[in-house]
Design a protein that fits this description.
- The protein has two domains: 60 residues, Homeodomain-like (Arc Repressor Mutant, subunit A, Orthogonal Bundle); 123 residues, Tetracycline Repressor, domain 2, CATH 1.10.357.10.
- It is an all-alpha fold and 207 residues long.
- It is built from nine helices and no strands.
Length: 207
């Protein structure tokens, strides 16, 4: 059964701040420990709230996880802006590639993709979570696809290029690269995956 969190619009300013603090604490814990390895008691302690406060805003852990998915989606996509919103040139694609690789290098290749990590843990056990995570990937894919379509409309990509498939392939290369980079503690797989994907897009360049 799907459970709901207390809507933000029903809360006071202080209530919204407390609720956001709980979600942020849960997101950080679940990123480091996994969803299964994070209890509501862990979240309560990290957010410095009482049990009554936590359950005032979230009926149960399932409702909290839904909000964590939303927060991590916004964090990931916002962290790639403004480049992600303007992937309409090969220069922009290369800058986006460098942004992602540099972020992994700074993190020591720890953690992987927050959205991908949640998907690997929840997709086969929680259908509502799987749907929410799929929507997150759709948003990510749409940003890449929008840039490629703009390139095609401007004449930088040949008419026979398929922006939908190219975007999906690029996102798949990114996710695979992030996973291998996490496991190997080395950005080389991520660089290879993105360079290969962007190189394939270049094959459809008109000049």
């Amino acid at each position: 059964m799907t459970t709901a969190a207390t809507p933000q619009k029903e809360l006071t300013r202080k209530g919204r701040a407390t609720r956001s603090r709980i979600v942020a604490a849960a997101a950080d814990l679940m990123f480091r420990r996994g969803v299964a390895g994070t209890s509501t008691e862990d979240v309560r302690a990290a957010a410095h709230v009482s049990n009554s406060q936590l359950y005032h805003y979230f009926a149960d852990k399932t409702a909290l996880v839904r909000e964590v998915i939303t927060l991590q989606t916004e964090r990931v996509l916002a962290g790639q802006q403004p480049v992600l919103g303007n992937l309409d040139s090969f220069e922009a694609l290369t800058a986006w590639r460098d942004l992602i690789v540099d972020a992994q290098r700074r993190s020591g290749c720890v953690g992987g993709c927050p959205i991908g990590s949640l998907a690997s843990e929840l997709a086969d056990s929680d259908e509502d979570a799987r749907t929410a995570l799929a929507d997150a990937f759709v948003r990510w894919d749409a940003a890449i696809r929008g840039g490629l379509r703009a390139m095609q409309e401007r004449g930088d990509l040949r008419p026979d290029a398929d922006p939908d498939r190219l975007a999906l392939g690029t996102l798949a290369a990114l996710q695979g690269g992030l996973l291998l980079t996490q496991a190997m503690r080395d950005v080389t797989p991520l660089e290879a995956g993105l360079d290969t994907a962007i190189g394939y897009v270049r094959r459809f360049a008109t000049r």
